[in-house]
Amino acid sequence: SKKTISKLKMSLAIIIMLITLVITATGRFSIGEVMLGGALLMVITGILTMDQAYQAIEWRSIFLVGGMLPLGVALTKTGIANSLGITFNNLPGATQPVILLAALMLVTILLTTIMNGASVAAIMTPIAIVASQHAGVNPRSMAMGIALATSLAFITPLGHPVNILVMGPGGYRFRDFFTVGLPLTILLYVFIIIVLPLIMPL
Q1: CA 118, CA 196: separation in Å to the nearest integer?
Q2: How much is the pLDDT for 177?
């Protein structure tokens, strides 16, 4: 019956998803390749049709990231990232790695309130790497700080597509995001600044 087939597809989809996550967690293969393989398996097994798979792709995000990554490269090639990185180094107290990390993360969070996080990462990562090199700080730790800061997209619905997607159905307003998101952002901001240097020494 249709009900039995539907349950079978649902169970199969869960199994494929779990297998995909387990393989990804091992770190032996590229995340993109594993996820694409899982998606193709969903289509091959008949869980999804090709039309459904195409409709599920957020093309705007793909083109957004595809357009912003060259911008990050351009910032590096033209020397803008170097200039901005030096500017961060000239801030009061920037000789302290934690203060430099805090400043870079703060700017990243502020940009994330009005831009997509992936775009902000493409812009801020080259700047963070240059600033860390001039300050004699571990660039990987600074880049991780930027990556974590771009995920703190709670203050407005503009920083992440999911925020916008739930805004309409949930009846949320900008004020709701700000009221809940600001305290959460501050809490996680402080937490990252304390914990990140312990895990990835600056």
Answers
A1: 20
A2: 83
3-class SS of residue 202: coil
Please give the average per-residue pLDDT across 22-28, as a whole number: 83
Q: Is 30 helix (H, G, I), strand (E, B) or coil?
A: coil
Task: Report d(CA 97, CA 139) in Å as an integer.
Answer: 11
- CA gap 200, 8 in Å, rounded: 44
Written in H, E and C, the secondary structure of 34-46 is HHHHHHHHHHHCC
Q: Which of 202, 104, 114 is nearest to 149 (CA)?
A: 104
Question: Which residue type does 190 have?
Answer: V
Q: Which residues contact 71 (CB under 8 A, 6 or more apart)?
A: 119, 122, 123
Q: Name 99's Cβ contacts closer than 8 Å, sequence gap at least 6.
A: 91, 93
Burial class for 125, CB neighbours closer than 10 Å (0-12, 13-18, 19+): buried
Task: Please tell me whether residue 100 adopts helix, strand or coil conformation.
Answer: helix
pLDDT average, residue stretch 63-91: 65
Residues 6+ apart with CB under 8 A from 50: 43
